[in-house]
Design a protein that fits this description.
Layout: H1 2-5, E1 10-15, E2 20-27, E3 31-35, H2 49-52, E4 57-61, H3 83-96, E5 102-107, H4 109-120, E6 125-131, H5 136-141, H6 145-150, H7 153-156, H8 163-169, H9 172-183, H10 192-202, H11 205-218, H12 221-229, E7 238-243, H13 247-251, H14 254-259, E8 265-270, H15 276-279, H16 281-291
Parallel strand pairs: 3-4, 3-5, 5-6, 6-7, 7-8
Antiparallel strand pairs: 1-2, 2-4
Length: 292
């Protein structure tokens, strides 16, 4: 299935301490790790990966719990879906591939994993780009009615199991389609073929439970880790891109939120919604090539 969307890429499965990570890899040159968000998989990068592979060795994993990666139990306080655990997976993956140092791109949940990785493994991350997010702690601390309404799943998915899992199970396709179409502002940016692949993964009850665990971790243990870091800053240069028509871009001064977390920050809004890589691939590529 992957080759249909990512010609020239091959798939691999790499065992880490806590999971088995499924990934696609292609191209040659310096290593570039790209982490997807919810409710997507590594295929969210399919419009830009081949072009990036002309200059980089591009590694596209499914985060633990997502896609065709394994779905461990959440553990105490959802620790196995903490961004620290999810980042550790990807560090192990890159070391297994022979890449102790690399450039890093993260969209949505993948951006949150990337943020934690850049703090926990500063020697590994050369440059970091985050797509359509403000820092997790910032967003929770500044929650208001508008944010809670637009991003209701931040508060729905964190409810104790099995409430959200059971409710989504009633009609996974409806929930997934509404979630994606509600965030994407460029009609047709997610093709039906790609949606079908996302849905294949979302139909798995273990995936839906893992996704809830990811969000539960983000509202508990991840916030503890973020608060413990206090005034620590990301050392690597950081590029923030976001959709001018999306919730994050409309409710936050995105660059200012990242300047509170990193020393060297640049970026801008693109004319799209939540998924620049699917909605505005050419602009996204221009920004990435200039930054990387």
């Amino acid at each position: 299935m992957t080759h249909e969307f990512l010609p020239g890429f091959e798939t691999r499965d790499i065992e880490t301490t806590g999971a088995c990570i499924h990934l696609a890899i292609g191209g040659s040159g310096p290593p570039l790790l790209m982490l997807h968000g919810h409710p997507q998989t590594h295929l969210t990068w399919h419009k830009i990966a081949s072009r990036l592979a002309e200059r980089f060795t591009v590694i596209l994993p499914d985060l633990r719990g997502y896609g065709d990666s394994s779905k461990p139990e959440g553990g105490e306080r959802h620790v196995n879906y903490s961004k620290r655990s999810m980042a550790a997976d990807q560090i192990e993956v890159m070391r297994a591939l022979g890449f102790p140092r690399f450039d890093l791109v993260g969209h949505d949940r993948g951006g949150r994993v990337a943020h934690r990785m850049a703090l926990d493994y500063p020697d590994a991350v050369q440059r970091i780009a985050v797509f359509d997010i403000a820092p997790t702690l910032t967003m929770y601390e500044r929650t208001n009615q508008e944010f809670a309404t637009r991003y209701f799943w931040w508060f729905f998915l964190i409810q104790p199991a099995p409430l959200p899992e059971r409710m989504i199970a009633a009609d996974p396709e409806f929930f997934l389609r509404r979630h994606i179409t509600g965030q994407i502002k460029v009609p047709g940016a997610t093709s039906e073929a790609l949606f079908a692949e996302y849905l294949r993964c979302y139909r798995n009850p273990a995936t839906r439970h893992a996704i809830c665990e990811d969000y539960r971790a983000a509202s508990t243990i991840d916030l503890d880790h973020d608060r413990a870091d206090g005034d620590r800053r990301i050392e690597a240069p950081l590029l923030a891109l976001w959709g001018a028509q999306g919730t994050v871009g409309q409710l936050y001064d995105v660059l200012e939120t990242w300047r509170e977390k990193a020393h060297d920050v640049r970026g801008r809004a693109l004319e799209c919604g939540h998924s620049p890589q699917e909605e505005s691939p050419e602009e996204t590529l221009r920004e990435l090539f200039a930054f990387l």
